[in-house]
Amino acid sequence: MGMVGGGQGAFIGAVHRMAAALDSEIDLVCGAFSRDLANCSQTGRELGLTQDRCYSDLGEMLSCEASLGLGGGAAGGRGGMQLLSIVTPNNSHVDFASQAAKAGVHVMSDKPAGISLEEVEDLAVVLQATGTHYGLTHTYLGYPMVWQARHIAASEAFGPIRKVHVRYVQGWLASAAEDGNKQAAWRVDPALAGPGGALGDIGSHAHSLAEFICNSRMSSLVAHLRSHLPGRLLDDDGEILFELENGVTGSLVSSQICAGEENGLSITIYGENAGLEWHQEQPNSLIERRATGEVITHRAGVDKPLCDEALSRCRLPSGHPEGYVEAFANLYRNFARALRDGVAPITYGVPGIAEALRGMAFLEAAVESSNCAGALTEIKEPAYGPDRKGLLT
Amino acid sequence: MGMVGGGQGAFIGAVHRMAAALDSEIDLVCGAFSRDLANCSQTGRELGLTQDRCYSDLGEMLSCEASLGLGGGAAGGRGGMQLLSIVTPNNSHVDFASQAAKAGVHVMSDKPAGISLEEVEDLAVVLQATGTHYGLTHTYLGYPMVWQARHIAASEAFGPIRKVHVRYVQGWLASAAEDGNKQAAWRVDPALAGPGGALGDIGSHAHSLAEFICNSRMSSLVAHLRSHLPGRLLDDDGEILFELENGVTGSLVSSQICAGEENGLSITIYGENAGLEWHQEQPNSLIERRATGEVITHRAGVDKPLCDEALSRCRLPSGHPEGYVEAFANLYRNFARALRDGVAPITYGVPGIAEALRGMAFLEAAVESSNCAGALTEIKEPAYGPDRKGLLT
Amino acid sequence: MGMVGGGQGAFIGAVHRMAAALDSEIDLVCGAFSRDLANCSQTGRELGLTQDRCYSDLGEMLSCEASLGLGGGAAGGRGGMQLLSIVTPNNSHVDFASQAAKAGVHVMSDKPAGISLEEVEDLAVVLQATGTHYGLTHTYLGYPMVWQARHIAASEAFGPIRKVHVRYVQGWLASAAEDGNKQAAWRVDPALAGPGGALGDIGSHAHSLAEFICNSRMSSLVAHLRSHLPGRLLDDDGEILFELENGVTGSLVSSQICAGEENGLSITIYGENAGLEWHQEQPNSLIERRATGEVITHRAGVDKPLCDEALSRCRLPSGHPEGYVEAFANLYRNFARALRDGVAPITYGVPGIAEALRGMAFLEAAVESSNCAGALTEIKEPAYGPDRKGLLT
Amino acid sequence: MGMVGGGQGAFIGAVHRMAAALDSEIDLVCGAFSRDLANCSQTGRELGLTQDRCYSDLGEMLSCEASLGLGGGAAGGRGGMQLLSIVTPNNSHVDFASQAAKAGVHVMSDKPAGISLEEVEDLAVVLQATGTHYGLTHTYLGYPMVWQARHIAASEAFGPIRKVHVRYVQGWLASAAEDGNKQAAWRVDPALAGPGGALGDIGSHAHSLAEFICNSRMSSLVAHLRSHLPGRLLDDDGEILFELENGVTGSLVSSQICAGEENGLSITIYGENAGLEWHQEQPNSLIERRATGEVITHRAGVDKPLCDEALSRCRLPSGHPEGYVEAFANLYRNFARALRDGVAPITYGVPGIAEALRGMAFLEAAVESSNCAGALTEIKEPAYGPDRKGLLT
């Protein structure tokens, strides 16, 4: 695996690296960690890379690595990189993914997929043409209890889903963190972040989580977005009411000005006969409340009565907490295994271009609705190929 | 105290009676518990009343009790009743309150105050004319930690409030409970319940809680209400986005079809520097998260560092859980003390006619917005006297 | 009901009064609240009693009340008192209970029952001779989920009980609270409190809870008690290992120097196939963990699938928290109902003289063991009549 | 790094490998994963090792690896292994560690260190003679909030520590899991596990945690151990009362027959002015309750106000849960950094031979006490060198 972005001072790059390393199925072999060559070299050195595989830009990396051959197996090995991890600001995601795809390199991209639906539609065409695989790190879909929630929500006992409420609240932009914080700065710059601020950064996770667990596409919404800090150009706070194709209605809260909140993603889903509640900050518990009065806490762990999809995302017996990195690692591991097995990563539950497209369509619809004082807005159907539903069945 | 409603088969009447009895400051002396005289007599007998003070209707009760004199002190004593507790379905609240007021009897009414803003405005005129006092049992405003939340939210350290999210979810109407359940049946009948279903029954609590803690009046909203069960005429589920006069924005979820939920009222409030979280089902804890990273759990108890208003609503040292009845009893006790001390119950923190009016205006605005596909709707300013703000300062 | 003790400055008296008042089945009709007549009168006045029923000592109260007749029904009514609530320091419990019994008045006594097993054995003889009823306020046995725990622990599915760990920790004696705090002062004085400090005050609750849920008598123990503050004569902290008659082993922690703790009573019980966990500070939840991996939270509420004994101790639907006063009230209400129905209060689940005797035997054994450096000590079999097991079956 | 043990069917080996891989500072370069060569080869293949570095026994591995030179840096690199990870049953720990040390290879050993104090004392001599480093995977000492707890417990504000209660309960041996479960089988066999069953497996963690947070050595104890299943030779359940050198008293529960429990390690510590509570299953929260009534939840995260030792053990911002593997990885990463920096791993907080010795002395004292019906037993002072206190200061 190679990486673009993730040099010193970055945050998410290190997380991708831990996630990729955890299961010893992926080797980091090269990187274009920073356009600043000193930074890039230093990062590579700290990661045990030789200097000749620390590159100053992606183009150079792709061509040099190609010359090493792609021999060593799908996701690592002795040859050049076969998989590119993209951990740069949003505005470069599509360009880098396209370059990689054209060079025959698979892509794992941080989210959101890009800064417009249009450019991601173009990327979809490239991916289809090149036959390369693409994964999008909607981390929270790597948690076992999210899969268990989807499993239960699909059961006859649960009954048809009626409602979903999803909430993603953080507090780190409650004050002007962007002054002097590199992580904050690009996220509030439309040129780098795209049309969504908090909505792109975390609302996109909430959107994918709701669609995934309910197994249905969001079709329309009413959005009220706003920015609380003077001069901040992108939303840092907002509420959305929405409807899914299967008739489920719900609400989505996305805010980064909720002072004191850490990484407060939570979701509740109600069927005719029961409800489910999951909090990312306590990811190993999934609470089910049945209309008959029983309250059950489903717990993660290889020794627990869970569905196969949840079990395969646990590494340890219950009571040995697995967390964010492990969820993230499930995406990387499954991507690698898909490459090894010659199947599409979506087969192994890794979010891909379908999720990327739906996420961008959601973002654009929400911004449009909010700009029109909360008008009811249809979410555009992205133009793409036959695997339209992605993780939705 | 006398009671109208609350005969056998009723629920909330017994709660009012426990709340009134807890602190031994109010005696139940008479009742018109049911229009069915056998039921009324039996209820009275079980409550230790003599048969001559069990009445078949309110009119009879008011005239007979008046003949006993109003001698025995503000909230009980040897003479006739001085306070009427109204625990009937919504459509009779205003009529009964007016009758009582005209007879010089103070009123503690269950919520919502009535079935239209107009009739509650009329009641306000009667109350002003008669000089009688009126309390509305927004139970949750009786909890000490709700007062502590308001206290913290008003502090300089908390910073200006920016956001409030309130959520009230129950599951008991997830299936057609109204077939054969008296409690459910009247709540889904517009003639008895008024314009709001879940919104009137529990959304009104969520509204009053948000206004109270933020200490600001809700000024406009966008409401999406619906009913999930065939033939159900009133909302059983809905989401509202709103704005308060002080600029705070927020969301309100009100649903009785959230299968498995018990009495899930919760609220989060965010200021510039901190956030607060309170769950009615764990009422003795109030969580404060500060932007500086500290997480504090404020706990109820007479031995705890709380504001005076919270402390005066605790009876026991921390760790001795007080609950719903105790919160309810705080309203009754403070009403009785206000009568004893010759002040308006609002002075001692009991919600009154101002809350009643705002609650009805909220209900009507929400129904109107929902009927207009979620149009942005101003909440009408009720016509009433100089104490416009009630509990809001 | 009459009360001895509970004047101004006292704590537990007010709790007993709320507990007795909650369900409107018991009237407080007289009191000897304090040997200080002004205090007694003032307390009575605040409680709405006439001055002629405020007495300066118990003897006077018993004789005057007897002259009023015992006509008005079991637990209140128009005649003299039929039930005496004893809320004085421990050293007077037995004397007052004996006086009442000899006057034909039933007794509800605060715990522990007395200051020596011997004097409580004498009391048992008096009770048997007079045919009066005696209840001991082991409050925690009034909680519905404690009964549910016992119910589950007795089930075949749970399997034979193997272990019990009970822990009662408070922090209010972490510093020298007894200097100037009346509540603390008598509890650390052996003459007033008896042989146990923390052990008598709260360890006795832990003992009764463990025996009750496991439905077996504690037979032997190893105790290590100590006092952390200079000059404090009674234990303020200790650990006990014990065995029940049914072979269950366990531990008991009793401490009032656990700084920061509120009223931290908790218990875990393990059978061959499952475990149970209950925390008094969250009394409406009982967690069951099954060996098969399922985790179930049993919740209090009249609408929940609970055993009859638990249901009959709930007043409200789930999600409307009931707490300490409601648990306490269950003891009073059931005592009153037993008197009304002419059965022994133990029949309705009120702890009585058997629990009183076992509690004293436990206390004396623990102090003896601790004085002998933690020697294994048998718990004495108290001398009393045929209803030896009390709540144990 | 090389590994001995951890072939197919093993559990803890995979955990060590994830822990070592997470931070990309250690490479697994060779292994003697199983005495069964096919198993060993297959395990190596799955881990991406070449067959020539999969060895059938440790001796062969040590000699072959030595021939590759120890060139590539402290904890990995191009040469032979420099660090041996021992993940075999207890009876081989000391032998393997000694072999490695004599070959100049550092050791990271699973716990407990061995099966007798004597053999671990001998190992200490070898380590001292060879100058090799030794780490013991007391995983829980890798959690940031455990370091924060120690930090707070040492503060003046906390006051002198008075009490510690530690509890480690699991349920997986509640039934006869050893029939057909390799993990269970050796743990209940004295020849393989040593003198302690549950006590060696998990009680040893509880012991190290209590000593570590209180920063004091356990000096004496009273132990009651037992086995609940017929034919089980080692303890599966027990309670211990103990005293630390600094006068702190406490209790330790160690049990693997607590049906339904997962990995329930928890600890409470009380000082004169506050208490602390930590649960391994919720490792990112540390609750502090102050005698003044404040309850604070300290939360893990690089953005939180924590002590340096805690912060350096966090990788992510708060709200991104880190768990068991991350705690484990902290031990490996710090061991590797110590080797890189040429200091003893204890300097970077990795438990070592001092903890190994104290752990064995604790085990032997507990078994001796239990065999003598719970006699008060001094914990032997192990014979070892000048760094007696290890992590204790």
From TrEMBL, chains A, B, C, D:
What GO molecular function terms would the record report? nucleotide binding
Top-rank lineage group of the source organism: Bacteria
Q: Gfo/Idh/MocA-like oxidoreductase N-terminal domain: from which residue to which, for each copy?
A: 2-134
UniProt cross-references to Gene3D superfamilies, sorted A to Z: Dihydrodipicolinate Reductase, domain 2, NAD(P)-binding Rossmann-like Domain
Q: Spell out the InterPro entries in the cross-references.
A: Gfo/Idh/MocA-like_OxRdtase_N, Gfo/Idh/MocA_oxidoreduct, GFO_IDH_MocA-like_dom, NAD(P)-bd_dom_sf
* GFO/IDH/MocA-like oxidoreductase domain residues: 148-276
Task: Please name the SUPFAM superfamilies in this protein's record.
Answer: Glyceraldehyde-3-phosphate dehydrogenase-like, C-terminal domain, NAD(P)-binding Rossmann-fold domains
Q: Which Pfam families would you find in this protein's record?
A: GFO_IDH_MocA, GFO_IDH_MocA_C3
- Write the protein's name: Oxidoreductase
